[in-house]
Write a structure and sequence with these properties.
With 105 residues, the protein is α+β, with helices and mostly antiparallel strands. 28% of the residues lie in helices and 22% in strands. The N and C termini lie far apart (31 Å). The relative contact order is 0.21.
Length: 105
């Protein structure tokens, strides 16, 4: 699957209009099977639609974490990883989001 096809499937899963073609952000960790979402709320919205397996790891940025959801999207050839960076001290509300609570479950 291409990077653009991955973006199209994520947009379709969220019932959003088709995305504009944008370059892959390799420096941010994106690949043909890994896509960065804008925020923890956006990632939670996707998680609410398609579920998946959630992992949280530390980043190189002090106090920040990477929240990643491995998902299976409709008509995709295999699983994809969708992620965002989250700084808990700046976004305490996210502890109540299902995508974050799934890790503790």
């Amino acid at each position: 699957m291409t990077y653009f096809a991955l973006r199209q499937r994520v947009h379709a899963a969220l019932s959003l209009p088709a995305p504009r073609p944008l370059p892959m952000r390799v420096e941010e960790g994106e690949s043909e099977s890994r896509l960065m979402m804008w925020s923890i709320r956006e990632l939670d919205h996707l998680y609410g639609h398609v579920g998946g397996t959630v992992t949280i790891t530390e980043t190189e940025t002090p106090g920040a974490l990477t929240v990643e959801v491995e998902v299976t999207l409709p008509e995709a050839p295999g699983p994809a990883r969708i992620f965002t960076e989250w700084t808990p001290a700046e976004e305490l509300h996210a502890f109540e989001l299902p995508v974050v609570r799934a890790v503790a479950a």
